[in-house]
Specification:
By secondary structure, this protein is an alpha+beta fold. It has nine helices and eight strands. Strands 3, 4, 5, 6, 7 and 8 form a six-stranded mixed sheet that branches. The N and C termini lie far apart (about 65 Å).
Amino acid sequence: MQFSKKGIASCLAALFTILSCNLQAQAGEKKFFGDNYDTEFTQVTHYDCDEPYDSNLEPLVKKDLFSYIQPWSGYCNKSDRPEDEAKRLPCQTSNIKPSLKYAGVEVIGNKWMRMACEHALKSVQNGGGPFSTVIVQVDDDSKKAIRYWISHNAVVMWKDPTAHGEVTAIRQACKELNVINLGRIEKSDPNLKLSQPGATSHCELYTSAEPCPMCYCATRWARIDKIFFSATVYDAATQGVNFSDEPIYAEMSLNYADRKKMGSYCFQCTLDNSLDAFNHYKRSAAGKY
């Protein structure tokens, strides 16, 4: 088979175009745990900083409980809902705290808490859920914040019901640091990928809204001891927002047989090999974590 010079040139040009397109696609393609993300909206890598850090925040003092008025930014966007709906969904100006659940832990937020709330608004404005999380890594010797991560709620964007801000922020920090314990990060750890000035450091978590059961557990599994949040579960459950964790909390408090009334059917299965993995794990010196 013979090819003309013009034909060969055309084939080479087409091949070059295909390769160029593939390379451009790879260069512009950004993925995190298999999901695409927009670099204009999300940065899954850390931000460096070097500044004094103090998480002992000033207690919120209410001199007169009944006349106390919470500060408010004044932000209230113009509703794009039908007028009759908009009238029933006014902007909220204070956190809802109907019980003593928050007694003794009310403090005045700092720059990290404000950052989490700002990015929660940014998340909504970019089609995500109204939540965001900031994780700060603190050097234990110098008491300085050395880096931080910001994560938005990506449930709808990634079609992943576990992609809450807290979970994705923990994934980001653990992946970059190459550790599974964010409560104590040791400089001597041969697996550690990011540098730190002191012998040990730890992470603290700021999230724009009170963590759901999944996120609270994920934070504690990451060994993070300090959790700061702003909006309450009651704020998240208000009319028009409708993110309520109460049914899950109620369900988890029940015996398994009683969870049927909540629409959950759980069964404990008896099998001869149900303990094989545990037996191998506890009798093996390798692979402990």
